[in-house]
Write a structure and sequence with these properties.
The protein is of the alpha/beta class and 273 residues long. The chain is built from 10 helices and 12 strands.
């Protein structure tokens, strides 16, 4: 059933306090979501207290199906691995099987071979570590990172095996990376293990600063069906292939409220997927 796969990205509610997490869980559960994706930073609101986190999940009968990692700029690489084993253990204990990986932040002027090799090594090391905890890492292309354009996607997915890393396409970020989302998803359809569905008005990302968790947010990302993404073709392709993983809606900035946009996106997926 489609409803059991529809997933809410809840980081727009905030990632710094337990109250933000509970507010998000209550809101999306009321809409009808059974699953959500959060970001790594949000687990520190619970100080890695597994019991307290599970109490919220049980209260609202909702479960996490992915956690999102964004790699800081190159100078902060060490921070990524400092507490990684504790984080992965916490995530795995929740029954999660997937992670999404956003490439190193801040693009160099030229993505030369040295940069491509660095990112390939970094993704590989992280993905290998996640496997030790039963977690599959999924490449998530993202604007203004070292994995934004198709050759950079190819660099990771063609040099790391599917047993190491899989693919989490994001329909809006593929668009601003000057990719055709339909063609790129088709190219790696056998690697798709998670999905981020976002719409966008225009092909250029309009940055609106940084969220509290450190991700760049964009003002021209919009609710599903209100922008230029060809969801009809993407949905058909995923269904024809037999993709049976999460269907995650996401919106950086809601025009009215996170709750309203999450409900509109839920309805769109229920009616169109």
């Amino acid at each position: 059933m489609i409803k059991s796969r529809i997933t809410a990205a809840i980081w727009p509610w905030g990632t710094e306090t337990r109250e933000q997490m509970e507010t998000a869980a209550a809101a999306v559960s009321k809409i009808g979501y059974e699953n959500f994706e959060s970001v790594k930073a949000a687990i520190y609101a619970y100080d890695l207290d597994l019991k307290a986190y599970k109490e919220v999940l049980d209260k609202y009968n909702i479960k996490p199906v992915s956690f999102y990692y964004h790699f800081q700029d190159k100078e902060k690489e060490h921070e990524l691995f400092e507490n990684l084993e504790k984080e992965l253990e916490f995530i795995a204990e929740l029954g999660v099987k997937r992670l999404c990986l956003q490439g190193t932040g801040g693009r160099p002027e030229v993505m030369d071979k040295a940069c491509l090799d660095y990112e390939l090594d970094l993704m590989g090391r992280f993905a290998e570590k996640s496997k030790e905890f039963g977690l599959m890492s999924n490449l998530h292309p993202h604007h203004n990172t070292w994995v934004m354009y198709e050759p950079e996607i190819d660099n990771i997915l063609q040099n790391l095996g599917s047993d190491i890393i899989q693919f989490a396409p994001d329909t809006a970020h593929l668009t601003v990376g000057l990719c055709d989302p339909v063609k790129v998803i088709e190219k790696y359809i056998d690697r798709v293990n998670f999905t981020h569905f976002k719409d966008i008005k225009g092909i250029e990302a309009k940055s609106d600063g940084m969220a509290s968790a450190g991700m760049e947010v964009y003002s021209n990302f919009c609710e599903l069906g209100t922008g230029i993404v060809d969801f009809k073709s993407i949905f058909k392709m995923l269904k024809d292939f037999g993709y049976d993983g999460p269907l995650c809606e996401e919106l950086d900035q809601a025009p009215i409220s996170n709750e309203i946009s999450a409900e509109n996106n839920f309805k769109f997926l229920m009616e169109n997927y």
